[in-house]
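User: I'm curious what two different proteins look like when written out as structure tokens. Can you demonstrate?

Assistant: Sure. I'll show them one after the other, since each token string lines up with its own sequence. Here's the first protein:
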Amino acid sequence: MNPNYLTQYNLSTFINAIRNFLLKGGFFEHHLYSTTNYRIENTDTFKIKDNLYLRYNPEPDIWQVGIKHNNFFWIGSMFRNEGKLSDLHQYEFTVVDIYQSNGKMNNVVQKFIELLKNLEKELNLRNLSDLEIKYMTHEEFVEIDKKKVNTKHWLIVIDYPAEESFYDTKEKDSDTTSKFEIFFAGKNGYVEVAACGNLGQNLNDKNFIPDKPDLLNKELLDKKFIGFGIGLERLIFLYDMK
């Protein structure tokens, strides 16, 4: 989104409202710096110099917080070298990354809707939290016309294949993962708002972070964390739309 005064004001108010909502809910806030000393492979990362990169993901650094905390979050900037800029694709954007222990998909969907309701109440926003929630498999989603939306609703896309995985758990059929994504369906088509999944071992053939071989330990996996990252500028974009 364009870095004008209104956008920055909206971003600050959204961040403050979300932070207060999570802190009151017993979540621990963790700080991460905007640079990392490793690169996530096969990504459009910005390299600063030598072995220093702008943060592309909060993972895996955020995961270590789970050793001491069952519920935690991070709010901050991420940087991606987008090939084409737009309202939904910028070099720098803001994410809130939330983790809950022993979580399931319905816990994430419930927490997401609770978060929206709190934002709408605190910031006097139009109501999006009461829209219908629909579900669709990833296989079905890739086949539909993304530009045709009959009614506004939230879409939960489930059953992502292993090649779409980034440290997720397997589903019952072993060919799909716990990864799922939350989309807003409206006049702009389908806008991805949140990426979600249960924390687990890397399931695909890509070695995303070769410099960090020990990303997960048994203590983290035993807590069965589920995480979801929300793009805040995208959320603002939805509420700002007429």
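Here's a second, unrelated protein for contrast:
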Amino acid sequence: MRVATWNVNSIRQRMEHLARYAEAARPDVICLQETKCADEAFPALEARALGYESAFHGQAAYNGVAILSRRRPKVVARGLPGAPADAQARYLEALVAGERGPVRVASLYLPNGNPPDTDKYAYKMAWMDRLSAHAAELLRAPEPVVLAGDFNVIPSPGDVYDPEAWASDALFLPETRARFQRLLALGLIDAIRALDERPGQYTFFDYQAGAWRRNKGLRIDHVLLSAAARAGLRSAAIDREVRGWERPSDHVPVRVDLDL
């Protein structure tokens, strides 16, 4: 099973990119973030033409997550549990069929949190606490678990081109990184780091200041695996060449191959 995650920064603007990527990488499952469209506007028919059934949780113009699967995904959660009043479309969880049984996959778009001295950062911290609580529950489930998406977290200095320049950013504050490490301490594994510890592997390049051309990037898009999913991990890669396409998203896909 090949699982990819990609913050597409507007699904309707990136359908040609999605089609090109699906043909080149041939993922079985694609987790999308920042779809930026309400559910009734999601291009499910276009996704089906590419060979995917869609599950989506969206809102107009902001946020939005989706799971595309070669086999129909069975949605088990629309929205992150723990705060029923939270209307932001940032979390979608589904069961997808693997060769050896169902796999529990979540597509998530974690809050940015900037500026850090505002309620936006408090929301980010609360969201991460809810994610940890829910992940602890998921790890007791019988299926392998894959949490994939834009975490808006730079886990370590090796994951940012200039750590000092980002020291006061919500993506890199000690409190943010500590909460990410709390997720890993539950028993989740960072798929990229499980196979490759080299620094300088980035998934996001800003549109400003020639960031892509100058390799000034961040690693903020992650695939986290339960122990059962990690046992099936065969490869993990960042498809950075996608950033060089015409009118690209500022994020690039991350993909993993799982023997599940």
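A detail about the second structure: The chain has one domain: 2-258.
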